[in-house]
Write a structure and sequence with these properties.
- It is a single chain.
- The protein is an alpha/beta fold.
- The chain has 2 domains: 5-100, Beta-Lactamase (2-Layer Sandwich), CATH 3.30.450.90; 114-345, 3-Layer(aba) Sandwich (Rossmann fold).
- The chain has 14 helices and 13 strands.
- It has a 7-stranded mixed sheet, with helices on both faces.
- A hairpin with a 2-residue loop joins strand 2 (28-31) and strand 3.
- Helix 7 (209-219) packs across helix 9 (250-260).
- The protein is globular, with a radius of gyration of 21 Å.
Length: 360
């Protein structure tokens, strides 16, 4: 048993989502979104590096020594899997571990709207799950892929850095590929994927132009493609994808994206006040003809209005989702105000509304 495994056991016992180990600081757990220090000595850089290297594959140690950054996955059988990131900082080495639950929760268990489950039966197209770091994108995406695995008879190919949720083949054949271990890059894996007879492709992160272009191409050639982006709304997601490309290519990409896009789910996590845990507020945009036209005509600023008028299709705005949580007393009004879009709409829920210059 590695020395560091004791921290993972503590993490599991406390229900923490993340473990921070940083030279010059005590260990820290993130519990329900908030950091809490562990009653332990301040970590020394050399001792911490020795502890970390005990669980790190040789090739990952080499990458870290050369670049100062590395990602990989670590698993303790019978406990959980962890996504690890090592980095160098002023006081020495640092590491963050994100727990990846061994049980993949269903869309119902996560409390997601019914329309999310329907995304698993789409025949083709591009579905994006977006949000800030730590907003639960991977968990939502895993629930959708799990639904695909149960109700379809297809080949699912996942491309991640590193592998997070592990799906066992059920009705579908599931193949997992990890960037750096099984393939050189997201783009290389996507190019290869088109020759591997996939029906469903899950791309862990669309982090560069080539990966984005290949994902759009795959969606337009009969594949169902799931991916993630670090954007906070449906409109910003569309803009982000298009703006990655040179100006002379943007009109063509706008047209391709309009044809291939099926849905954007943008989510934000909130700490619950009614019980332990967190809940997600989702903005859901479905690619109706009206949405496609706005993308083609470069009028993405009108997408929020289309979302408001598309409730009958299952669309919802982020603010409406937050208000639903507020009305059911699941989240704190101040937290809702801080993360909402239209601040004026939420001032009525606050006992002491702040003097916010953005409301002027």
């Amino acid at each position: 048993m590695a020395q560091i495994d004791a921290f993972f056991k503590l993490m599991n016992d406390q229900g923490a989502s993340d473990l921070h180990l940083t030279a010059g600081s005590k260990p820290i757990l993130r519990i329900n979104g908030e950091l809490e220090r562990v009653n332990f000595k301040v970590l020394d850089s050399d001792d911490l590096k020795k502890m970390l290297y005990e669980i790190t594959p040789e090739e990952k140690i080499k990458i870290f020594e050369e670049t100062g950054d590395v990602d990989f996955a670590y698993e303790i059988p019978g406990l959980s899997r962890y996504r690890a990131n090592f980095f160098n900082q002023k006081w020495g080495v640092g590491a963050v571990f994100r727990e990846i639950p061994s049980e993949i929760l269903t869309t119902e268990q996560l409390g997601l709207p019914p329309v999310i489950k329907k995304l698993a039966i789409l025949p083709k197209g591009l579905v994006l799950v977006t949000g800030p770091t730590g907003s639960g994108k991977s968990t939502t995406l895993a629930a959708i892929v799990n639904e695909c695995n149960k109700v379809r008879k297809d080949h699912i190919l996942t491309i991640e850095d590193p592998l997070e949720f592990v799906h066992q083949s059920d009705n579908c054949l599931v193949n997992h590929r990890e960037v750096g271990m099984h393939t050189r890059s997201f783009a290389a894996a996507l190019r290869g994927a088109l020759r591997e007879d996939p029906d469903i492709i899950m791309v862990g992160e669309m982090r560069d132009l080539e990966t984005t272009a290949l994902a759009i191409e795959a969606a337009n050639t009969g594949h169902l493609v799931f991916g993630t982006l670090h954007t906070t709304s449906a409109a910003k997601t569309v803009d982000r994808m298009i703006e990655q490309f040179p100006a002379d290519q943007q009109a063509q990409i706008r047209s391709s994206l309009a044809d291939g896009l099926r849905a954007v789910v943008a989510q934000t996590l909130f700490k619950r006040i009614d019980k332990k845990g967190r809940c997600a507020a989702l903005e859901i945009m479905l690619a109706t003809p009206a949405v496609r036209n706005l993308i083609r005509e470069s009028k993405t600023y009108q997408i929020p209005s289309v979302i408001q008028t598309g409730k009958k299709y299952g669309m919802q705005s982020l603010d409406d989702a937050i208000i639903d949580h507020l009305n059911n007393n699941r989240i704190d009004p101040n937290d809702a105000y801080n993360k909402c879009i239209d601040k004026a709409k939420f001032r009525q829920y606050l006992t002491k509304p702040p003097d916010d210059f953005t409301d002027v």
